[in-house]
Amino acid sequence: MADNAIYRALRLHIAPDKFYVEPRDQQSVGDQILEIDRVTQELSLADNEGQIPPSAESRDIFGILGIINLLAGSYLVVITKKTLVGLIRGHEVWVIKGTDILSFPRATFHLTESQQRNNNIYLSMVQSVLQTSSFYFSCTYDLTHTLQRLSRTSPDFLQMPLFERADPRFVWNGHLLRPLVVQPELYKFILPVMHGSDYGVQFLYVLFWGGAVMMTLYVVLYFGNEYVDQPRLVQVQAKDKNV
C-alpha cells in the first residue's frame, strides 16, 4: 500500500473510556492504533501494547466518516458496509452501504426530557442521510479531482495524503473530519467521502433506449409498407402470372 494511502480495513474496539481503532491491512502489521478518549475527546496514536481491554466490544469497519456533535455530545461515525462499484486506473472505488453512529457519552442523563427528544430527532436525521446510497470513496485515489486536473499536477502533489490534496468543495464529510485533520499524523485514518449519484448514467440509458424505440416506431410508421406490404404484392403478382 502506498505511503499516502488510507487504511482499507480497520478493527474498532469499544471500551467504556475509549474507542480503539486498529489497522487490519496486510501491510499495516506493527502500525500504531488510534485511541479516541470518550471523555476528553482527545485523539492520539499509540503502539499496540495490549492496552485494549479484553472485554471491549469489537467489530470490523472500513473507514471513519468523522465526528459529529449533537445535544448529547460527540458521536463517532464509521463505515460498516461497502460495495465495490468500479476501478479508476486500477484504484478501487467503493459506495457506502452501511454506517454506525457511536456515542461518546455512555448515557444521556445530563439532558432534559426535551433535549433527549430533540437529540433523538437529530440523530434520526443523520441516520436517514447516511442511509442513502450516494456516498463514494477510495482509499488510494482522489475522487475530488478530474483526470485532466490530476494529469497536470506535479509528482509532489500526488504524494500528498488524500485529505490534504482533496478539493474541499467535494469532500462531503469535511466538517466531520475536522477533529482529525488538525492532527496530520492521523492521515491514514482520514477518509474523504464524496457525495454523488448515478442519475446521469440512468438518464443517458433512458435517453439512448428511448431514442432507439422512437426511431424504430418512426421507421415502422413511415416506411412500414415497404417492408410489410411489398412482399404481399410480390406474392399476388406471382399468383397472377401462374393464372
UniProtKB/TrEMBL annotation:
EC numbers: 3.1.3.64
Organism superkingdom: Eukaryota
Gene Ontology molecular-function annotations: phosphatidylinositol-3-phosphate phosphatase activity; phosphatidylinositol-4-phosphate phosphatase activity
Transmembrane helix found in the keyword field: yes
PROSITE patterns: SAC
TM annotation in the entry: 61-79, 203-223
Annotated keywords: Membrane, Transmembrane, Transmembrane helix
Domain SAC as annotated: residue spans: 126-196
Catalytic reactions of this protein: a 1,2-diacyl-sn-glycero-3-phospho-(1D-myo-inositol-3-phosphate) + H2O = a 1,2-diacyl-sn-glycero-3-phospho-(1D-myo-inositol) + phosphate; a 1,2-diacyl-sn-glycero-3-phospho-(1D-myo-inositol 4-phosphate) + H2O = a 1,2-diacyl-sn-glycero-3-phospho-(1D-myo-inositol) + phosphate
One of the Pfam families matching this protein, by short name: Syja_N
GO BP field: phosphatidylinositol dephosphorylation
Keyword Signal: no
GO cellular component, one term: endoplasmic reticulum
Name this protein carries in UniProt: Phosphatidylinositol-3-phosphatase SAC1
Source organism of the structure: Stylophora pistillata (Smooth cauliflower coral)
